[in-house]
Amino acid sequence: MNASIRDYIINNFKGDDYASLERAIDESIKEQDEVTLPGMGVFFELVWSGASRELKDNMLNVIKQRIANATLSNP
Hints:
Blueprint: H1 5-13, H2 18-31, H3 37-49, H4 53-69
């Protein structure tokens, strides 16, 4: 089998409706399970690669603010 994790994740969610995608994202964040991080990365990659400059700038601003305000779970 020569499928990448990226392909697996994309194919796993193809056809899902908005509610299913939102639930998957919310559960991934709530559980804070690092196993789900690759999937979240693939989702982010899909958004980023099709985003306008304005949307990228908005995302970068949100990320920068959230990082500045984040607390580490294992300082």
